[in-house]
Amino acid sequence: MRMPGMDGLEVARRIRDDHLPVEPLILMLSSDDLKPQIERLRELALDAYLVKPITRKELFEAIYRVLKDSNREGAKPVPQRRP
To answer: For the whole model, what pTM was predicted?
Structure first.
């Protein structure tokens, strides 16, 4: 969330504005309480946000839930280019 130059919400907005062929899933992990910015979070349609500290189990559960709810097929492997 906190980065020099732009915050994580601005990064998410720019990703959403890129109109990529496949809309990426965005999970945000922050040490800030994001409740004051809940309206901005809704506008950006973040798939999940987590407030640190979290456990490994909580992180994996959030990733699983977002992938399951997205109804997407598994990622296709990218062919390896040989030098």
So the answer is: 0.69
